Amino acid sequence: MTDSSKNSKSTDETLIVHIPLPKEILQRVQAHAVKNGESIEEFIANLVTDIIHRYQIQEKIHKDFDEWKAPLLIQVISLNDHSLKVKFDDGLEGVYEMKSHILKGGVFYALDEMDFFNKVTIKGNGSYIAWSNKIEIDADSIYATVMRDARKWRP
């Protein structure tokens, strides 16, 4: 090995792949390459690079989302109009409307009775609210709704 070959470093690697393509796909690739002023090889390399970049961004978004946890509930107060005044440990406060849940029926219909509705409690160290052991709503859902409503009404 000569000194010049030792010192030359390549930052890119070449991968040669033979993929049989239907004629109409190859024609589209050629048309896009010409439109972008690239060779077919450059066009495909840029396309693959873009796909990998988009995948990496999506992967980061999913990782960040999976690691994100809503702040914990520290206070919930039932109000007479079948809504809940809630407060989170990050300072967000708001009203979480429950009437639409009740009107849909199902398990939430039991909350129409105000005596039962008023028995709401914070469970799971602030990760959800519950009425007895039958009806639960997680803090993430409440937080997202209160945050959305706060943005909607921001002056």
* Element-level helix/strand string: HHHEEEHHEEEH
Structural class estimated from helices and strands:
alpha+beta
Largest sheet: 3 strands, antiparallel
User: Regarding quaternary structure, how should these chains be classified?
Assistant: single chain
The number of helices is: 6
Note the overall shape: elongated
For the record, the CATH class of the largest domain is: Alpha Beta
- What's the helical proportion of residues? 40-55%
β-strand amount: 15-25%
Sum this structure up briefly:
The chain has about 160 residues and is of the alpha+beta class.
What would you say this structure looks like, in words?
The structure is a single chain. The N terminus is likely disordered. This protein is elongated. The chain has 6 helices and 6 strands, in the order αααβββααβββα. It folds into 2 domains: 49 residues; 80 residues, NE0471-like N-terminal domain (NE0471 N-terminal domain-like, 2-Layer Sandwich), CATH 3.30.2020. By secondary structure, the protein is an alpha+beta fold. The strands form 2 sheets. A 3-stranded antiparallel beta sheet has the order 1-2-3. Strands 4-5-6 form a 3-stranded antiparallel beta sheet.
